[in-house]
Structure formats: C-alpha cells, structure tokens
Amino acid sequence: MDKRELEQISGMLEQAPERVAEFSKETYGASFQKYVQENADIWHTLADIWESDDISRKENGEKVAECLALAARKQLDGISGRVKKENMRLNLNLYMVSYFFPAMIAYQRRFGGHEEAMYKLTSAISDKWEECFGQRIQAADYESVQSGFRHKLCFVTTAVCQGLHKPQDCRELNLMKRYRDEYLLNLEEGDALIREYYDIAPTIVKRIAREASPEEKYLYLWNTYISKCVAFVEKNENEQCRHLYEAMVSELKEEYMVTDRHKQ
What we know:
Helix content is about 75%, strand content about 0%. It is mostly helical. It folds into two domains: about 5-145; about 155-260, no CATH class. It is globular and about 55 Å long.
C-alpha cells in the first residue's frame, strides 16, 4: 500500500463533521448510501488488502490503522479548548462507528467480498485507536446502526461509561442493554419510552460535552443514577430501575433542554 493510498484513506476523516451532522433517524439511511457510493474507490482499496499474502496483509492492515489514528490525532491537536477538543473526539468516534466501519462491511456484502476480513481490519483499527486515545471504538454493520435508532435507552448510559473510560462491553452497560431489551421493551408503553429517550439523548450528550468539565457531570450521573440502576437490575428490581432512570432523564431535560442558556 503506497503513500498516496494511505493519504486518501486518512483523508476520509475530514468528512466527519458533515456526516455526523446527518446522523439522525430521518437522514442517516440516505446519507449512508450516498457515502458508500461516493467513496467506493476507498472501500475497494481496503478490500484489496486481503488479496495479498499473509505478511503483506498484516503490514497493510497496520499501516491503515496507524494512518487513521494519526490523522485523528492531528485533527484533535489542531483544536484549542478542552470542550471543542472533546466534541471533535466524540464526533470522530461517531463517524468511525456509524459511517466508516459500516461502509467497509457494506461494500464487501454488496460485491460478495471478504466480509469477515473487514471485521479483522476494523479490529486492527480499533486496537490502534484505543492505543492512541484510550478508548475503543466498536465496529457494527449498517443494519445494526440503523436499528439502534429504535432501541437506544442506553444512549446516555453509554456516554457516561465512555466518559468514565469504561470499555464498550463493560458489565454495567451490558446489564442496562439487557434490561432494555428483556424488560422495558415488553412493557405496554416501553417502546414509546425508548423513543422519547432517544429523541432527546443525543442533544443532552452533546451539551454535556460542551461543559467545562464533562467528566464531573458523568461522574455525578454515575454516582447518583446509573450505578444504582445497575444495582436494581442485578437484584431484578426492574421497576425501581425504571423510576430512577426516568428521574435522571427528567433532570437532564430540565437542565439541558429547557433552560434559557441552551435556547439559541
């Protein structure tokens, strides 16, 4: 893999702000399909890695992972201000898991290529990302991301866990996801509650990221609400968990979506 190809791949990160702005229930589908088509040459280049011998395959995979991590680091280093830098980091993470990774996988499926090989490459990229930023990004296909717009009770929980540097597969987050899928969705009003949470959660998370000390807010939410919700789930006290989670969302709505300081 030559320098020009690596520069083209790393240059894909420049699309992050535009793509993230289109990451919503209403626009994601069309935005993603356009993204895949317009960057087909990139997906083809990445697919070609797996047509080489084992040694070249490993070396090229590591080059791709490193060039993306370095490009992300360069973008972050070019931003002054802690809050702006944190916003950019979140946007880069979201871009990678909602556009870049799913597009790699979608291209392989469309042309009958090495889908499993793409997951190996996404894993190599995730490893390097974690090494550089202390946070692992997880690959998913387009269908999984799209379905997430319906089942995102844990959006705030995920943000809090990431803010406290917990891994994406941590026990607490898995418990809350299981609570969502096995308990809340089976309630008569469960799906409506989840839809409401997802409608407001992305805005809340973005506004927390703009705070001077988002980590302090995450720690407060963890100590006051989420860790206690997890304890309720562990004891099968599901209604208590629901009431507490609703109290957290109500507080966050009042602070980040109602007050005059966010009306702009």
